[in-house]
């Protein structure tokens, strides 16, 4: 086997940087340093640290990632890697860990698709696509489902769950935004319901302050006391849940016509502006107060429901 020549400056870099066993880019990317011998004329040689292998990409981990995070790409022949691409979009940075593994940074605006590695020998890509969940801003009426990197319901936006939703980052309902969970569940990292936002749900357990129960089951969650909450109890025994703030801007109970389902308070609540009873609300022995504000006056009681 014919060994490649290595300039003395390259040798000095390799010897002075023992922690960086492999070069990152260029014709020496991935070349392991095992043995150096002198050669007439001042040049030096390095035996290859592994036998020649055809370029191949076998997979990446994790199978789901968001922009700005790193994924591990596995395969073979990762020598002289010139580029790594995510569904055609070039990675901003990557490091060769070994001839069978590299680590790459998922670029901004990346989308779901194959991950490809290019060398002088050609290009190889994964057979299974890497899933890159999108970041979505809801500004009108929109159905949402599946996995998102981040989901924001903006002012005037109405997001309705058509299936369970998982958010790798945070789901944010901004002032003037409306999120309708229906009977589905939101899971993931975080949930924020801002002042002036509206949250609707039909989950029988209502809203939990923590844990894997209720309509919102994210790792962290915050429900504003200046938001409005709309409950649509669909079955007997439905609860508001301990996650409902003890003070809210608005509280609505809307039951289907001729439904026997009712909503029961899990804890006491004070309503600042509007209590709308379009169904049956049972206090369960807890307090239910209508507040008076010096700016907006007393809270209103609307609807023909039962209390």
Describe the structure.
This protein is mainly beta. It folds into 2 domains: 1-131, Immunoglobulins (Immunoglobulin-like, Sandwich), CATH 2.60.40; 135-302, no CATH class. It has 1 helix and 29 strands. The protein has one helix spanning 8-16; strands at residues 5-6, 37-38, 44-45, 56-61, 70-76, 83-86, 89-90, 94-98, 101-105, 115-119, 122-125, 135-138, 141-148, 150-153, 158-173, 178-180, 186-193, 198-201, 220-223, 228-231, 238-239, 247-254, 262-264, 269-278, 280-282, 288-290, 292-293, 297-298, 300-302. The longest helix is centred in the first third of the chain and has 9 residues, at 8-16. The radius of gyration is 29 Å and the shape is elongated. Mean pLDDT is 86; it is low at 1-40 and 42-49.
Using brief descriptors, characterize the structure shown.
1 helix, mainly beta, disordered N terminus, 4-stranded antiparallel sheet, 307 residues, 13-stranded parallel sheet, Immunoglobulin-like
Radius of gyration: 29 Å
Head-to-tail CA distance between termini: 88 Å
Amount of helix: under 10%
Average pLDDT, rounded to a whole number, is 86
Number of domains: 2
Largest sheet: 13 strands, parallel
Number of strands: 29
Per the principal axes of the C-alpha atoms, what is the gross shape? elongated
From the helix content, strand content and strand pairing, which structural class follows? Answer: mainly beta
Proportion of strand residues: 35-45%
What is the ordering of alpha helices and beta strands? EHEEEEEEEEEEEEEEEEEEEEEEEEEEEE
């Amino acid at each position: 086997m014919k060994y490649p020549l290595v300039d003395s400056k390259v040798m000095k870099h390799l010897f002075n940087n023992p922690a960086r066993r492999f070069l990152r880019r260029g014709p020496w990317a991935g070349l392991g340093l095992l043995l150096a011998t002198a050669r007439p004329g001042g040049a030096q040689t390095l035996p290859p640290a592994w036998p020649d292998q055809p370029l191949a990409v076998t997979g990446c981990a994790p199978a789901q990632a968001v922009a700005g995070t790193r994924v591990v790409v596995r395969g073979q022949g990762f020598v002289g890697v010139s580029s790594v691409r995510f569904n055609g979009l070039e990675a901003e940075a990557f490091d060769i860990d070994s001839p069978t593994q590299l680590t790459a940074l998922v670029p901004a605006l990346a989308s779901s698709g194959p991950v490809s590695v290019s060398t002088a020998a050609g290009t190889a890509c994964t057979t299974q696509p890497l899933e890159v969940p999108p970041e979505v801003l809801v500004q009108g009426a929109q159905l949402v489902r599946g996995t998102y990197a981040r989901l924001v319901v903006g002012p005037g936006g109405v997001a309705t769950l058509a299936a369970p939703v998982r958010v790798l980052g945070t789901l944010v309902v901004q002032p003037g935004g409306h999120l309708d969970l229906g009977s589905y569940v939101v899971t993931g990292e975080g949930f924020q319901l801002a002042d002036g936002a509206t949250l609707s749900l039909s989950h029988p357990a209502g809203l939990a302050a923590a844990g894997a129960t209720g309509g919102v089951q994210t790792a962290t969650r915050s429900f504003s006391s200046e938001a409005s909450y709309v409950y649509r109890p669909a079955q007997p025994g439905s609860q508001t849940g301990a996650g409902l703030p003890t003070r809210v801007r608005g509280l609505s109970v809307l039951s289907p016509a001729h439904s026997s389902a009712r909503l029961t308070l899990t804890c006491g609540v004070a309503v600042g502006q509007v209590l709308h009873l379009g169904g049956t609300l049972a206090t369960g022995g807890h307090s239910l107060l209508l507040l008076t504000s010096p700016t907006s006056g007393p809270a209103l009681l609307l609807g023909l429901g039962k209390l």
